[in-house]
Amino acid sequence: QQQVKQSPQSLIVQKGGISIINCAYENTAFDYFPWYQQFPGKGPALLIAIRPDVSEKKEGRFTISFNKSAKQFSLHIMDSQPGDSATYFCAARWTSKLTFGTGTRLQVTL
Amino acid sequence: KAGVTQTPRYLIKTRGQQVTLSCSPISGHRSVSWYQQTPGQGLQFLFEYFSETQRNKGNFPGRFSGRQFSNSRSEMNVSTLELGDSALYLCASSSFRGQSEFSGANVLTFGAGSRLTVL
């Protein structure tokens, strides 16, 4: 199966809080798991990515946790800021093709 | 370093017409992919070109086609437009050369997209 399931569909977090977005996949052939951030009127932009042989990767306030046995991975945004309000997509790569999750609309309130 | 450039940004067509969208990848990137983004289906892979050859193809009807030129620029064409073809069409480029190669730099960089409205 090529599907990537993403949840939640939308998320409201207060400023300073932690935003958590979850994804699950089926195809064990996927070899790279990026997260993209998309603002209205813009194309998706790479945020952070992880390989399946790594359990966690952190870049600033953004952390990916990866559970290979469960075929799940998640994005944690620490100290969420209003500027983080955007739509987030998880994805999984096989050959040159990315399969995307359905997206999570994050709103960070003051 | 210039990003991925897509033209036109917005266009309106009527059913039955055809449309051609253009994409200029990041300099040095030889792989160009196309994705369709709609509220209902999300981001869906159309096709990928590398060195003027289609290397990968998604599950879209034959009305959707593409090509890549020797300078890596790419075009996609949709013929006999249907209302359901209304979408944001995204082009992305990368330096990805093959499955055995792994690097963060090989991940796709997207353009801002071409928003197609079919009336």
Question: Short description, anyone?
Answer:
Chain A is mainly β. In chain A, 0% of the residues lie in helices and 57% in strands. Chain B has strands at 5-7, 10-13, 19-24, 31-38, 42-50, 53-57, 64-68, 74-78, 87-94, 109-110, 114-118.
Give an overview in words.
The complex is a heterodimer of chains A (110) and B (119). Chain A has 110 residues and is an all-beta fold. Chain A has strands at 4-7, 10-14, 19-25, 33-38, 45-50, 56-59, 62-67, 72-77, 86-94, 97-100, 104-109. In chain A, strands 2, 4, 5, 9, 10 and 11 form a six-stranded mixed sheet that branches. A five-stranded antiparallel sheet of chain A has the order 1-3-8-7-6, with no helix packed on it. The N and C termini of chain A lie far apart (40 Å). Chain B has 119 residues and is mainly β. In chain B, 0% of the residues lie in helices and 50% in strands. Chain B contains no helices and eleven strands. Chain B is globular and about 35 Å long. The model of chain B has no long low-confidence stretch (mean pLDDT 90). At the A-B interface, β5 and β10 of A face β4, β5, β9 and β10 of B.
